[in-house]
Structure formats: structure tokens, C-alpha cells
Write a structure and sequence with these properties.
Helix content is 57%, strand content 5%. It is mainly alpha-helical. The chain has two domains: 60 residues, no CATH class; 140 residues, no CATH class. A three-stranded antiparallel sheet has the order 1-2-3, covered by helices on one side. A hairpin with a 2-residue loop joins β1 and β2. The longest helix has 23 residues. The C terminus is likely disordered.
């Protein structure tokens, strides 16, 4: 039984958000929520004995308050039998991580939260890109707590927002060097797009604007 946000996965959280509330009675909404939190068909929820139904309904009360990201992030995460480490320094990102992160952010959709996390939460003993990203994203959706997910994503969004012009200049310099060596025209074009975005970000930071505001992620 899921009765708090630490037990609620990213996927379940998105299911709850996608409940169509238009024209639904309160009892129907409650049944849908109980169904999602307990992996039950809605008909099975309706047919529960009243005491059991009330118990499951009371367990949904934690949803009355939005999930709050933690101020700190874990250095490692264990999901099932797999261990992951969290890249907590954006200066250690590869060009591939940076490009993928920017592409995921550009979608401006919470559906891409697991994708964004895959840029920073890496399987132990591996480098970014070693594992099948689609498998990692699926695992995060099914198993990663929404609290952990929001804490990590918020941490890196704050990091990006506080990037200085000097740091972006360094990243641009590093990208230029890699572009000179890159032979694949498709990868080279992506690097060029990333360079253009860096130029925009430097202008925004110089003017005092927020990166999150540009991306439409800060309300």
C-alpha cells in the first residue's frame, strides 16, 4: 500500500496527475486514486468491504499536500538490485550529457523527468551512455521515489540557474575543441545547437534573467 510520497514512484505520480477530474464525482476520483496507489482495478476497489475501503481511502490523505523536494541529494541510490551514483558536479558532465539534458528540458513536460534524471543518475561502475537509456528511464518510472526524483532534478535546476557567465564560457570553449575533432556530421550539428543555446544562456545570465524562467519551468 502506498501511503506516502517516499513510496510513490514517478510513474504512479504521473498517473495521479493524469486523472481526468472533469465531470467526476468526489467518490469516483477517490476510487481512481485508490486504484492507482494499490494496483487494483477500479471495479475491485468498489467491491471492497467498507472497512477495507475506508482504510485505503484514509491512506490517500498524504496527497492533500504537494511533494516537497529535499534540500540535499543522495550520493548513491539503490533500485532493486542495481546501484547508481549521482553526478553532483555539473562541471564533470560530458558533452553528451549536456546535449541530452538540454534536449530533455526543451520538451517542458513532466513526462521527461526520468529522462532528465538519467543524465545525472548513472549505474555504478559505468559511464554515461554505457547502459540502454530506455531501460534506465523505465526503471526510474517504475521504482524511483518521486521525492528522490524531485530532489535531484530541483538540485540541478538550481545549479543551472546559478551558473555564472565564466562557467558557460568554459563549457563553450570545451565544446568548440570537441567540435574540431568530431567527424560525425549529425553529432557536430547537435554540438552546434548546444553552442547556440550556451550563447543565449550567457546573455540571460548577464541581464540577470533566470534560466528556469526561459525554459518555462519556474512558475
Amino acid at each position: 500500500m502506498i501511503d506516502n510520497y517516499n513510496k510513490l514512484s514517478i510513474g504512479k505520480f504521473r498517473e495521479l496527475q493524469n486523472i481526468d477530474l472533469q465531470g467526476m464525482e468526489d467518490i469516483d476520483i477517490q476510487v481512481s486514486i485508490i486504484s492507482i496507489l494499490n494496483d487494483m482495478a477500479e471495479d475491485d476497489v468498489i467491491n471492497l468491504p467498507l472497512p477495507e475501503y475506508k482504510k485505503l481511502a484514509q491512506a490517500t490523505r498524504f496527497l492533500s499536500v504537494p511533494p516537497q523536494p529535499l534540500n540535499t541529494i543522495p550520493k548513491k541510490i539503490v533500485i532493486g538490485n542495481r546501484e547508481f551514483y549521482v553526478v553532483d558536479d555539473i562541471r564533470k558532465m560530458t558533452a553528451g550529457q549536456y546535449i541530452d539534458y538540454q534536449n530533455y528540458l526543451s520538451h517542458k513536460s513532466e513526462d521527461y523527468l526520468p529522462h532528465i534524471l538519467s543524465c545525472f543518475v548513472i549505474p555504478k561502475g559505468e559511464k554515461y551512455g554505457d547502459s540502454d537509456i530506455s531501460e534506465i528511464i523505465e526503471l526510474f518510472n517504475k521504482e524511483l521515489s518521486i521525492i528522490t526524483a524531485l530532489s535531484i532534478s530541483s538540485f540541478f535546476l538550481r545549479k543551472w540557474e546559478s551558473l555564472t557567465k565564466a562557467t558557460l564560457t568554459y563549457l563553450a570553449w570545451k565544446m568548440k575543441r570537441m567540435m574540431k575533432k568530431e567527424q560525425n556530421p549529425i553529432v557536430k550539428e547537435k554540438m552546434k545547437e548546444a553552442m547556440e543555446k550556451m550563447t543565449t544562456f550567457r546573455s540571460i545570465l548577464k541581464d540577470g534573467g533566470g534560466l528556469l524562467g526561459l525554459l518555462g519551468l519556474k512558475k
